[in-house]
Amino acid sequence: MTETTKPNAAQMASPSYRMAAMDQDFLMGDSMRGVRFLREYAKAEEALRAWGVRSTIVVFGSARIREGHRWYEQARTFGRLASERGGAFRGSVGEPRDNVIATGGGPGIMEAANRGALDAGAPSVGFNITLPHEQEPNAYSTPELTFLFHYFAMRKMHLAMRANALVVFPGGFGTFDEMFEILTLRQTGKAPPVPVVLVDRAYWTSVIGFDALVEHGMIAASDLDLIGFAEDAEDAEGVWAELLARGLRPNENID
Fold first, then answer.
1. Could you give the CA distance from residue 32 to residue 20 in angstroms, rounded to a whole number?
2. Is 85 helix (H, G, I), strand (E, B) or coil?
3. Does residue 255 have a pLDDT over 60?
4. N or C: which end of the chain has fewer CB within 10 A?
5. Average pLDDT, whole number, for the chain?
């Protein structure tokens, strides 16, 4: 021990002596997985409550679609239209607002829907996820409502728990995963009745054999009633009309 070394230096330098809340090695360990899960829930929940976001319209779709594509432009138009008509403008920060556009926060269709909300001057939510090739948030979700998740399950929970409606533009595996998660919750009664509208019937019926699922006895014919279609991806008014026909009530919160 040198003259300047404290006799308890080894104890103070030990990882066990770190405050638990400040110990990153401890917090990122296997035993704290449940705590990390809870923290991901609580952080987003607190911010959404602070902004008064009590219900959303969730928009899914491909991250690969770029500005200028008809699906991008219609997702943008829909984001603006839904924000203007749905209740996203009601009140100020902290007062209840409904049918706020919510997306996965990334590029493509997600960007377009967030951008449409911003065009209208309304807030919108971006639920981002860490990926091997890092996804950065798009530039159009409300900064205070732009979140980053590690766990897909918690991200999906936040996407589902406030959803008044689900609008699904064409997409791939990620879009399928998110869409079928919601449909399974609806089919099993684990989620309240909410309209689910798939945009561009020609695309969806070409990539998923919905009728074949019924023919093979994998789902009931009545399960197809969980899904509505917007015939034309270039008709945002048609998407909105289908949501209304399937029970969306503008300016009304979820039960």
1. 11
2. helix
3. no
4. C
5. 92
